[in-house]
Amino acid sequence: MIALPKMMNDLNRDTTMNKFMLLLTSVSLATSVYAENNVPLSLKVYNADSNSFHVNSTLVYGDSEAAVIDAGFSKADALRIAANVLDSGKELTTIFISQADPDYYFGAETLKKLFPEAKIIATPAVKKVIEEKMAKKIAYWGPKMGDNAPNNLVTPSAYQKLSFTVDGHAIEIKGTTGLLAHRPYLWIPSQQAIVGDIAVFGDLHVWTADVQGEAQWNAWLQQLAEMKKLSPKIVVPGHMKKDTKLDAGNLDYTSTYLTTFDKVKKNSPDSKMLINKMNTLYPNAQFPLSLNIGAKVHKGEMKW
């Protein structure tokens, strides 16, 4: 028979060991959860409505710093983007303009007034196209936008490097060479995220009017293929329908749309048939203006 004191000692020892193992398990679980949530940078996307062509602006922020990727179209868009910055409580150090279209840079004036210390930058190719088209763009859009239009357009500085940082974490600038050098995109390695590119659309009719000719069209498809090779977990389209999932499916969507558009275009005698066929194939896609203009341009019925 086991002596009672010895039995009690054994029970106490087992109980203590069980508590210790439970504590280790708890610590292990807590560390696992912390590791999953301890991402160096966070993203917050502002998705404008149809009045601003469903364009996106992304806030990238770390412990103390933030960057805005694309400044929005209207003053109202820029103010909503600014609200995201203020809500983050971080210092806005960089405003990166990824594309030369007005819906990507018109809002820079408003952001500059609110965050005067932030640097507004773009690649040399993007800056060049902005400067070439800026006067015509504001002459066209200014009267249409009224008080929502910028008063004094801000031109980004030409940024020569291929990366910048937020709290020491790299944001890489890709797609800066070739036929579409004026349509770069950003790659955030720590997040495995692609951000800021007019080449990618989410559940909308893709804007095709700016890319004409087989060489540019193939370069666009190639860029999408290069993006896919990065194996991104997050893909923020340049334009998207509200609540579009921010994943690599947007690359497949855009690539398939372009391939389909090209095939339908070759089998359509005019833009009317092209538009009807694409609407049938993509009944839930928004942004009809994109399809209407793109179809007319690609069928030679409109100059762009």
UniProtKB/TrEMBL annotation:
Q: Which Gene3D superfamilies does the record cross-reference, listed alphabetically?
A: Ribonuclease Z/Hydroxyacylglutathione hydrolase-like
Q: Which species is this record about?
A: Pseudoalteromonas citrea
Its protein name is Metallo-beta-lactamase domain-containing protein
SUPFAM superfamilies to which the protein is assigned, alphabetical: Metallo-hydrolase/oxidoreductase
Ranges annotated as spanning the membrane: none
Which residues belong to any copy of the Metallo-beta-lactamase domain?
Answer: 54-239
Give the domain of life: Bacteria
Q: Which Pfam families match?
A: Lactamase_B (PF00753)
The cross-references to InterPro entries, in alphabetical order and at most eight, read: Metallo-B-lactamas, NDM-1-like, RibonucZ/Hydroxyglut_hydro
